[in-house]
Write a structure and sequence with these properties.
Elements lengths: L6 H60 L3 H92 L1
């Protein structure tokens, strides 16, 4: 059988499909990493809220036990505001991370489409090769039949001359 003249193209498409699959896999891993980071930040924010409430309650209890006046209450309010500011910073990080997750999800979708396209292109070239092989086989068979017919005719003519 003659060599397939589009073999280089088939090899290129196979490599493109492989690269697309690897890119998709790495995009999935990146998405999982971003989701894990988001969950970590959400958990951190919830923990900070619980700790703030506990610290404020403990501080309030201590202030009430000591009998501190306005100064103690002002210090408690400043302490609580500082803790709330830290929570707000973490909440901003959570929102940024949610955006990062959305970007990663869009990238995964794009990689999925690229992978599907690469697979479709490879399948098309493989189908072309199959059809080409069938055509080559058919042509070879036709030539052999023609050769057999010529041999048969030559033998027939040789017998008639005798």
């Amino acid at each position: 059988m003659p060599p397939y003249r589009l073999q280089a193209l088939q090899d290129m498409r196979a490599r493109a499909k492989e690269e697309a699959e690897q890119a998709f896999s790495s995009a999935i891993k990146a998405l999982e990493k971003e989701k894990a980071e988001l969950q970590r930040l959400i958990d951190d924010l919830e923990q900070r809220k619980r700790e703030r409430k506990a610290k404020v309650a403990a501080y309030l209890k201590e202030v009430m036990f000591k009998g501190a006046g306005i100064n103690g209450m002002n210090m408690m309010n400043r302490f609580e505001e500082r803790l709330k500011d830290e929570e707000a910073q973490v909440a901003l990080e959570v929102e940024r991370q949610r955006e990062a997750v959305k970007v990663a999800e869009r990238l995964v979708e794009q990689r999925r489409r690229e992978m599907a396209e690469a697979a479709k292109e490879l399948k098309a070239i493989e189908k072309h090769r199959e059809n080409w092989q069938k055509q080559v086989k058919y042509e070879r068979q036709q030539r052999e039949e023609l050769n057999q017919e010529e041999i048969g005719n030559a033998l027939f003519l040789a017998r008639q001359r005798k």
